[in-house]
Amino acid sequence: MGRSPCCDESGLKKGPWTPEEDQKLINHIRKHGHGSWRALPKQAGLNRCGKSCRLRWTNYLRPDIKRGNFTAEEEQTIINLHSLLGNKWSSIAGHLPGRTDNEIKNYWNTHIRKKLIQMGIDPVTHRPRNDHLNVLAALPQLLAAANFNNLLTLNQNIQVDAASIAKAQLLHSMIQVLNTSSSFDSHPTSNNLYGQSSFLENQPNINEDFYDPTQSLSHINDHQPLDSFSSPIRVASHQDDQSSIPPLISVSPDESKQTQMMIKNKEIMKHNDHTSNPSSTSTFTQDHQPWCDIIDDETSDSYWKEIIEQTCSEPWPFRE
DNA sequence: AATTAAGCCAACCGCCCTCAT
DNA sequence: AATGAGGGCGGTTGGCTTAAT
């Protein structure tokens, strides 16, 4: 390694930037570009380390920074990309024009992560969480799935008993919670909602598809896990071939690598595109649809929207 | 009105990678 | 091959703001 951090130099200012410092940095970069970041502070008359200047510029002062709330589309893109790339914030930021890796990282940690946890989704694996305490958090999901039975009567063409399975699982889980609540700590991985003894354990499509990362979270009230509605339907649509349904998200390292390779290839192609056609504005959301391919036309957004709206008009056991 | 807790986010820290010598 | 400079990246911190008591 053999290099001391650039900020070790004594006497350099740290902490929040003043408007004057910002202006100096902007003026210098407008006139000369950033060049060597290490040399920049002296040239610009700033008592900061180069690294601090670079961060300030890339995360805040850059003219193409988009500020303000994230849109539903951006949020969805972040979730999709995170399920593929993990905490590769800079890669994710590369697909969100005007957003910085730092901003996306903060938004993930303060908003999206919490939403996923509240829905019983592990924000790292994007799969249903396996811990016992999650049973309680997942109850609304199960009840939502059970409530989905009403939908089935509205959509006669869907031939599946997923709602019945969910109801059975709900009762099963509640009984287990009552029976095992005193030994949660000692048996952290058994008798839980998605664990070994779960009735749904042998219904992988229901377990694994409970969360659909292609659905945006932004419209979801914290206590209304609408995503849970979509899963049983999708199970139904693939009922004929349950064993061969690909997971919505890559789980194994190999799968993850394959997906990342696909993205890299896409990026290379996109880069070539941009090179030959600078006006191109394609983004991941527009030309990467890794999950949509397995959803047939009947399961389009409008189709789900209609179903969700119908469901929301039904009495909701947890609505406040 | 005062205090405490929780949420948020800009900025920092330190490790890692690439490239030049 | 070894070393160091420069920069990128993800994780973490600390201070400010807002909400709750």
TrEMBL record:
One MF annotation (Gene Ontology) recorded for this entry: DNA binding
Protein name listed in UniProt: Uncharacterized protein
Alphabetical UniProt keywords: DNA-binding, Nucleus, Repeat
GO cellular component assignments: nucleus
Ranges where the Myb-like domain occurs: 9-61, 62-112
SMART domains in UniProt: SANT
Signal peptide: none
Domain HTH myb-type: 9-61, 62-116
Keyword Repeat: yes
Compartments where located: Nucleus
PANTHER family, A to Z: F14D16.11-RELATED
Organism of derivation: Microthlaspi erraticum
Entries under Pfam families matching the protein: Myb_DNA-binding (PF00249)
Gene3D superfamilies: Homeodomain-like (1.10.10.60)
